[in-house]
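Catalogue entry: protein
Contents: sequence, C-alpha cells
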Amino acid sequence: MRPKKLANKVAVVTGGSRGIGKGIALAFADEGADVVITYLSNETKARETVLELESKGARALAVKGNVGDEADAVKLRDEIQKTFGKINILVNNAGTIGKEMPLKDMPTEEWDKLMNVDLRGVFLVSKYLIPLFDSRSVGKIINISSELSLKGRANFTHYVTAKGGINSLTRALALELAPDILVNAIAPGPVETDMILADMDPEWIEKETEIPLGRLGKIDEIAPVAVLLASDDGNFFCGQFISPNGGAVFN
C-alpha cells in the first residue's frame, strides 16, 4: 500500500460541504488529512460531509459562518486552534456565481454581495489562518479562481472581477509567503455542481459546453489538482494558475 500523500496534515476547505469544495475535502481525507470545512447555512449537508470524512478515517470539523464576515473568520480561526492547534493546507473555495446581467443594470448590492464572498472572503480567511500554519513543514494555500478570470465574460463583470482579484491576490501572496507557504490557484472551467445545475438556466449551461471537450467538467477532475498542489508533489509550484477547463481557454 502506497503512503498517503497528506498523512498527518490538517486541511481547511471553505465552502467544503458541497460542490468542488466537498470533492476536494473528500480527496484530502482519502490521502490521510484531517479536514475542517466551512458552510454558510445548510447544517444537514455539512453534517453529512463530516460523516463522510470520518468514514475515511479523518478527524473532521464543520464550522458555520460567512467567509466575508470578519467575526466569522475570527471564529473559524479560534475553532481550528482549539481543535487542531495548527493547519498545513488552506483551500479558499467558498464563493457564489451571482446573477447574469449587464453592468448598467446591476444593483450595487449584487456587486457587493459577490465581492464580499468571492474576494473579501479569501482575504479574511487567509489573514486569520496564516498564523496557524505549522512552521515545521511547507504550508499550502490554494485559491479557487475561474477560467472566466482568464478570458472574461459579458454580463458577469462582478464574478469575473472577483476572480481576477483572486488571481492578483495569489501572485502577491505567493511572493509574500514563499518559501514557507506556497500559494497557488486553480481556475476550473465549467464544472457540473449542484449550484450550477440548480441556479443556472439551460441556455447558460449550453453556452458553457461550447468548448473543445463539449461537456461540463466533473468534480473528480478538479479535486486531484488540489491534492497535487497540497502534497509534496506540489513543492515547486509557487504563484501558479492551473486551469482544468476542457479547452475553454488556453493559458
Remarks:
- The chain has one domain: 10-242.
- The longest helix spans residues 108-129.
